Amino acid sequence: MLWIILFVFSAIFALIYYWSQRKYDYWKKQKVPYLKPTPILGNYGDFILQKRHMLYVMEDFCNRLPNEPYFGVFYGTGPALIVRDLELLKLITTKDFYYFNGREASEYVHKEEFTKNLFNNSGDYWRVMRQNLTPMFTSAKMKNMFPLITKCAYEFEKLLDSESKKDDIEAREQVGRFTMACVVSCAFGVDSATMEENTDENNPFVKVKDAFFSGSKWVSFKGTFKSVWPSIFYGLGLKSVPAGVNEIMKNFMLSVFEGRQYKSTTRNDFVDFILKFREKSEIVGDSITNLKTGENKKVHLEITDDLLTSQCILIFAAGFETSATTANYTLYELAKHPEIQKKVQEEIDGYLQKTGNQLNYDVVTELPYTYACIEETMRFYPVLPMLSREVIEDYTLPNGVFLEKGTRIHIPVRKIQRDPKNFPEPEVFRPERFLGEERQKIPPYSYLPFGEGPRICIGIRFAKMQMLAGLVTLLKKFNVELKDKSRTSVEYEPQSIIPTPRYPLKLKVTPRDGWETRTFVQT
Known about the structure:
Helix content: 40-55%
CATH class: Mainly Alpha
Strand content: 5-15%
Organism: Cnaphalocrocis medinalis (Rice leaffolder moth)
Main location: endoplasmic reticulum
Subcellular location: Endoplasmic reticulum membrane; Microsome membrane
Cofactor: heme
Number of helices: 21
């Protein structure tokens, strides 16, 4: 019996091996420089087997072919083109966006509720959703929401007062509680209770967060498996997000709807947008094909509870974790560079003196140096170190390279942002490069923390607003320094979706002199 089992497994493995080897001549036929793959895993074996984070794997690729503007690799058994030439990036992300409007594995996004969201989708579905959700993120809407951010900042200050009594803090956890509160309040109009001293582990938002960002090997494995071999993943009946998470968010949204009697209000938050969608039963937008044909074709998209729930999960998950991670790395760099931290604090002190210790929406324009520190942090530590695109229709590059439908495009964001041709002295943390005339010297398409082109992150303004509010709240009152001064570089956890430090970045937080004069005046 044992020999039969061994024979069957050997036969299956041999078939897979033979099948994969036949596909591995793709880039050779195209006469594109490429890295030799290993059977089945392609060039991403260390990533697929969770040995190394994706960004390390991609940077190794680029280091092996340092002078190539693009080159071929294999993501498992499928071809992928690594692109770092800025003119090609302009073509892919903007000029010929129609041909590259998908993320990856676009034909599978409707296999489960969660992936029906704006981030994962492509084509008409994506464009109609994008056009209808964009009005929620205008400057005027952000200004209307800012009083909710301010209230969260008051609670954050109380949390910091309590946490500062400890020997050290892990800023990512504390800032994450703040950004989660901001997202839940601004998007859904409720108190998340995440900044209470003992947050209930049964808190629905904590449960959803853990489902996405727990860093467990199983969650990471499922995400990788789905990304590399989506047909096998869904063929086995697997789901990237547990059904319970969808139910939690669906039940939560229904309770919010009931609280508003299923009618939109003047609050103008995300729930109001959702309710307006429900009232219409469908939304209308431009077809993605108009970008190619020049026509004015309209597309009608039916509104379902699944569609709405998937957008809610995305707004929540993307809204708090990315900002918390960036703010954490910003504080880490400020702790490493006390002279920069001092300049940030002087700018914050001047702002509060000007406003009478009130935190207002103008914080987004009145703290240019502080935001330059955030931007420099995003250059160092992009939360998406790789951008992915998918060829949705056969396309030929200007140099004659043919890309067939379904080919993946991988953009090594961190490598591009640390290229000395784009950013002189790339390993030096220097916020000034994002100010004044220096900013004008940054080559277009070389700075991609939010993406670029029509698919640029829809929540940029919200992210800026909440990150600045959080840093003002912390740095007006406290100094930060490294707990372990020898830990001056970051090593990433292989299983993390958003690059997470393998070892927590512990900070010592101490009250500043005269902090009493900078206490928020609540309005």
